[in-house]
What does this fold into?
Amino acid sequence: MKATIWGHTQLPEGHEEVHRFAFELHDGSKAPPVRESVSLRTARVVVAHLQDGNALIQMFRAIVSSDAAGYDHLVGQSFEDDFVENGPSDRVDDSSGWQNANR
It folds into this structure.
């Protein structure tokens, strides 16, 4: 998986905990990337409770460990774990429908 921060929204003073980061997740398959956003508060909760080092958690850790002055430097950063370009996907197959992975 590959997680890339592509933006953030600066909020009015006093709302630092709900500062939002936009990101994209790509599993390496031909399926389109998934775009989502996360608040600083949610990233802190996830990091506090999960030890996994996958791309998403690595990205959340980078967000949490940055100070507000450094948020602009996060935009464009990518975090990878087992990302394989055009590799197999557990999200889609050759059909137009979605399916679960056979593991």
Q: What stands out?
A: The chain is about 25% helix and 25% strand. The chain has one domain: 2-80. Residues 2-80 form one domain. Confidence is low (pLDDT under 50) at residues 98-103.
